[in-house]
Design a protein that fits this description.
Length: 337
């Protein structure tokens, strides 16, 4: 090989290495956190549709609570996550910059206070002196405390334990606690030996509404608007399918089987849990009632009201003047479904 050929080969090799380096450097990667809630969009996590539609290399990670997810976002380990409005209000009140870009669900019957058979609880008037539990800083924890206050009781009257859902199920089955405010799969487990006393919707009607949302770290949201729009579009597709084709989501469906494989439980349990959801259309979400409207945003108002309640409970030290900066309808505008 002469020197000219050798130089050409070296140059070609360097160019190839450079091209490979550039390609690797421009790979779009994101870590997305989810929980065990049964949602139509969870199918898109399991079958890869979210990754395909966005064009990003998505590392999906399962967490036990929104509080854990916000801690991971704060550390930079997670960029996008599925959370409830109570930990959302707590995190933003403490200075975390995130934006809700899609409302996964609103207060419904998919979260509830279940009381154990033999606990001596047959109505809300029987809660005094009882032991109840909810996941720490969760929407369930917030609503359980709000429920207790609405009854004219305090945590001195009702013992409230803030423990993770797996521990709630174990404590409940041992008889250590009288009830738990939970979501699936814990909700299904507790109902096997108890009854639903009150649902999230009931508590919302008493003045403490909640929601669950997909949020993104503000910096990531600002730099990756196309990702959020594609992500939202996929969720829209699955929510529309769930609304229009019930057979495709029954206990015998591939969707229910995939949800059970991904989230746990049985296809029957997943199909049943889906029926309990209260979902919003993209148009409703983008409206002033929820993510739109800036200062008038309904979601921002819920966050502020929740933060005020958490401050009264000593859970946060400050309530911000406004929470409008933490919600945005941008990903839903012109998003296909």
């Amino acid at each position: 090989m002469n020197i000219r050929t050798l130089l050409a080969a070296i140059t070609l090799g360097s160019a190839s290495l450079l091209a490979a380096f550039v390609a690797q450097a421009t790979d779009k990667k994101v870590v997305v956190a989810y929980q065990t809630d049964a949602l139509p969009s969870s199918v898109a996590i399991a079958n890869g549709d979210l990754a395909k539609a966005t064009g990003y290399d998505i590392d999906f990670r399962k967490f036990n609570s929104g509080a854990e997810i916000f801690a991971a976002i704060a550390s930079g380990d997670v960029q996008v996550g599925y959370v409830g409005s109570s930990p959302f209000a707590a995190a933003t009140s403490r200075g975390l910059e995130v934006k809700a870009f899609y409302l996964a669900s609103i207060s419904g019957i998919d979260e509830a206070l279940v009381v154990r058979n033999g606990s001596g609880i047959s109505s809300l008037s029987d809660l005094k002196g009882k032991k109840l539990a909810a996941a720490p800083v969760s929407t369930d924890h917030y609503q359980l405390l709000a429920l207790i206050r609405s009854l004219g009781l305090t945590e001195k009257d009702v013992q409230v334990f803030a423990i993770p859902q797996p521990e709630i199920v174990a404590s409940y089955n041992r008889g250590d606690i009288d009830g738990g405010f939970v979501w699936d799969p814990a909700l299904t487990e507790l109902k096997k030996s108890g009854k639903v006393l009150v649902t999230s919707k009931d508590v919302a009607d008493k003045g403490a509404p909640t929601f669950s949302a997909w949020v993104a770290a503000s910096k990531f949201a600002d730099e990756n608007p196309a990702f959020l729009k594609s992500f939202a579009s996929v969720i829209n597709t699955y929510y529309a399918s769930f609304a229009a084709d019930k057979k495709a989501w029954n206990a015998d469906s591939d969707h229910a089987k995939l949800l059970a494989k991904t989230l746990g439980g049985t296809p029957e349990q997943q199909a049943s849990a889906l029926k309990n959801l209260s979902l919003l259309t993209p148009e409703a979400q983008a409206s002033e009632a929820w993510l739109g409207g800036g200062e008038k945003s309904g979601a921002a108002r819920i966050l502020k009201d929740t933060a005020a309640f958490l401050k009264d409970q000593g859970k946060v030290s400050e309530v911000l003047p406004s929470y409008a900066a933490f919600v945005t309808p941008d990903a839903l505008v012109n998003a296909s479904n």
